[in-house]
Amino acid sequence: MIRSDFIRGHLDAIILRLILEKDRYGYEISKEISSRTNDRYQIKEATLYAVFQRLEKKELLESYLGGISKGGKRKYYTITTLGKAYLKESVAEWKVTKNIIDLFMEGLD
Amino acid sequence: MIRSDFIRGHLDAIILRLILEKDRYGYEISKEISSRTNDRYQIKEATLYAVFQRLEKKELLESYLGGISKGGKRKYYTITTLGKAYLKESVAEWKVTKNIIDLFMEGLD
DNA sequence: CGGATTACTCTGCCTGTCAAAGTAATTTTA
DNA sequence: TAAAATTACTTTGACAGGCAGAGTAATCCG
């Protein structure tokens, strides 16, 4: 498990990206992150739902209630136009960030 | 200027890396970061001195008072053996983190 | 002398993450 | 069929890192 401070700041983009692929609900996203990272990172529930609240308030996401399959009622999220723009910007920022951090992390072997 | 949340978690390693190169004092590090990043990132003074306190408490750094050249007395920092080990570990973690975030940031063009 | 620059410190705030606990429904299992 | 496991979401309160802002001090330059 990597430290969450390393992911901090990128979580919004990660969630948005998964929802860009298709509408998703919280629990699904949580499992999806774990599986895609081979359990090297797991988002905590409290964190995930805090992200939803933040993104919905910023109008980057919208939600609707979906069916019940097993367990509680699912709340699905869909990305807005604003959310797509934000995600695009985040990806660009990530590239810059990577280069900056690499400046200091390289040449140490 | 990139968002500081993107650097969060990596700041300790960045500072340690600069001090690994040679003993340095706060103001110098601040300027060095700005110049190496072409002002794409500037550490805030309050942040920098908080990092020093944290790293010294963890015994990753040690300090000694140096001469006065211009302005206040300089406090130099030197990296400890523990600090070197921590830095090495941080670099390895950074590589993992990069791959994980890339998982979600790629394939969007 | 006085402003600009160098250099460090402290206080209090904001934000993001998380542990912990709770609610509720459905499926599995014994 | 009752209990246990799983799915699914919510809330509260705490903590840590980063930062604005203000302050202290010494030195250099005009």
From TrEMBL, chains A, B:
Pfam families per record: PadR
All residue ranges annotated as the Transcription regulator PadR N-terminal domain in the record: 15-89
Protein name, as recorded: PadR family transcriptional regulator
Source organism: Oceanobacillus chungangensis
